[in-house]
Every structure is written in C-alpha cells, then in structure tokens.
Amino acid sequence: MPRARRSHWRVVIPLLLTIAAMGGLVSYSATLYRLFCAATGYNGTTQRVLADTAAETGRAVTVRFETQTAPDLPWRFAPVQSEVRVHLGEEKLVFFAARNLSDKPLIGHATFNVTPYKAGPYFNKIQCFCFSDERLGPGESATMPVDFYVDPALDQDANAKDLTVITLSYTFFPSADPTDIKDLSRFDPNAPPDAARGRELFAERCAACHGLDENKGGPMLGGVFGREAGTAAGYPYSAALKNWGRAWDEASLDRWLADPPVFIPGVKMPIRVLDANTRRDIVAYLKAESERPQAAR
Hints:
Layout: H1 3-27, H2 29-40, E1 47-48, E2 60-69, E3 75-79, E4 83-87, E5 92-100, E6 106-115, E7 123-127, E8 133-136, E9 141-150, E10 165-174, E11 181-183, H3 195-205, H4 239-242, H5 250-258, H6 260-263, H7 276-291
Parallel strand pairs: 1-7, 2-10, 8-11
Antiparallel strand pairs: 2-4, 3-5, 5-9, 6-8, 6-10, 7-9
Helix pairs in contact: 3-7, 5-7
C-alpha cells in the first residue's frame, strides 16, 4: 500500500472509531444517566435496596408526598396520606391510589425524585410501583404501597444538618415501550394468594439470606410448613425461636414476616415485610414449595 494511502487510513480509522463511540454513547445516554443518578442520588434520585438493615435513631424528618399525571394518561393518581413523620432508619409503609378513568386497559410508568436533591442518596426504597411498568384495567382502581426508610447516614452529612422536610414526588406517564409489565390488581387485598408472584418476591426479598434446601444467613425454608420452629438441621437458632415450640402455618408465618421480634421476642431476624399482599404471596410460595417432594425443588 502506498505511503500516502497508509497515512490517510491512520487518520480515517481513528475518526470512524470516535464517531462510533459517540453514537454508542448517544444511544445509551438515557440508560447511563439513570444508572449514574441511581448510584449517586444526583437530581434527587432515590436508592433501591432489599431491606432496612439500619438502626433507628432519635432524629426525625417529615416526608411529604406529591403526585402528577401526564395529560395523555387518563388516570387519577394521588397519595393516600399527605405526609408522615419518620425517624432516620425507621422503615415506613405508605400508599398511593390510582384509578383508570378510560374504557381501555392502560400501562403507565412512574418517574420519581426527592427534594431537596441532597436527600436523594439517603432515601431508600424497598418496594415501589415505580420499579416496573404498571397495567390498570378500564375503570379499575388500585392502592399501591411504597416501603422506604431514610438512611441514618444523612445525620453525618454536614450539608444535610438543616434538613427537616423531604418531598417525594411521582409523575405517571404512558409507557412508550413497556417491558417489565405488572398488573396493579396484585395489590387487591381480596385477591387470592399468588404463589407465582410469591416466587418472584422470595427471590427479590428473601433469597439473599434463605435457600429452600440450604442454610445461608438464615435457615433453609423448603418444607417449612408444618415444621416445628427452630428445627432446620444445622442452623444456629436463637434460644427464643428454639423454645417457641410450634409448627409454622399461614397465620404464624404472616405474623413472623410482619415483625419477627414483636411476634417472638428475643429472635435475631431484623428484617420485616410490611406490605400484607407481599407477605400473602411469599407465604403462598413457601406453602407450595413445602407440598412439593424435596427432589423436585
């Protein structure tokens, strides 16, 4: 190849690679921006966590709620409560109501942030309808839970010493390209238990500490229905749970998940599942798994 042509390609190839890289960044800029905001709390973006593992402190803040709906989404959407008072580290369950005012099913997605923006890195959501695209049938209504806490680390931030009020805002838009679609009917308190949804919830909320047929940070839960509490082989239970002396059933597992130390004082498990519908479906999944032969799990 002539020297002049080689020189030409030495200029052209880097330019083409630069243009391709810039095109890739443009294509993924929205995704990269969301990831950046989620990691840093930038622009009031809240954090997503699996559970509240923080210790509650004496400092309290007021959390207020604001909602909006895009003009092209015919939903009515509002907070059930206008505000709540919470201590740092205190897990709180609040609710939002939505109604589809149209005669056809619609899928919406909620955007969110908190103000002042400096509260974003400390506002942790455990459960939220904003994590997925939500379907609401014609004329249907739903009451949707949000489970959150404010990280006590906020108290160590000199820039947040004056923070007494946090506003959590949501805006529902029509989903332009829905992917992770979920039906808001899952929040109906009169709906039958859904073991399939319970399997998903178990994977999200429980599997980090519990296996079906192996002990992890918590005891194995395969076959837990009808099993006497504190008897899974090889797990170092607290004396309180060993001495409870009863077999697990729907009612006792529901009360356990709602608040373990209140149900059985002295136990070690600190994690709660505040939403009753979530507990219902997790318990249904554990019951279904207990009824399956061990080899089929």
